[in-house]
Design brief:
four-stranded antiparallel β-sheet; globular; about 170 residues; alpha+beta
Length: about 170
């Protein structure tokens, strides 16, 4: 009997807590007052999100270009990034960041490149506190649609730097 009461009480508390989490985003007004529903979002330009402070680091997504993929013989997408270590320990972009590229809503695979045009080891170079390093990543494209690059701290709070590229306009 005590178990049933405890289960019912727990279930009720859970239901109440879930109801409390849901909120109504509409503005409340008193009788005779009207809510101001105008927004300025339409007149503001979107913020530049190609650079962000992600945890103890700053990451900037730079320019991009198309490059020949030596492994498949097809073109690949090369993106330049800058990593700044604002932390207290030496680390590399490879260990501190998670950089992904998406095309048509699907994550792209990294390309295998043996070209002199691509610095394959730049992502793994250690950066001391206060230092910065430019590095490159290459991805295999699956179509001609735009590519969204997302950089964030590995196991971080979700803060991201993002930038979208149109492969048709890249040289």
């Amino acid at each position: 009997m005590k178990k049933r009461v405890a289960i019912i009480l727990f279930g009720s508390l859970l239901a109440l807590s879930l109801c409390a989490c849901g909120g109504d985003d509409t503005a409340s007004t008193t009788q005779g007052e009207t809510a101001d529903t105008t927004t300025t979002e339409e007149t503001q330009e979107p913020a530049d999100t190609s650079s962000a402070i992600v945890g103890d680091y700053e990451v900037s997504i730079g320019d991009a270009r198309m490059i020949s993929d030596d492994y498949t013989g097809e073109e690949a997408f090369l993106v330049n990034l800058t990593f700044t270590n604002n932390g207290e320990e030496t680390t590399s972009p490879m260990l501190a960041l998670m950089v992904e590229a998406y095309q048509d809503g699907v994550q792209l695979e990294r390309a295998i490149i043996g070209s002199e045009d691509f610095d394959a080891g730049s992502e793994s170079l250690n950066v001391q506190p206060g230092g910065s390093n430019e590095f490159q990543l290459v991805f295999t494209l699956t179509s001609e649609s735009p590519v969204q690059v997302i950089a964030q701290e590995f196991l971080g709070d979700g803060t991201q730097a993002t930038k979208t590229f149109d492969p048709a306009t890249l040289a």
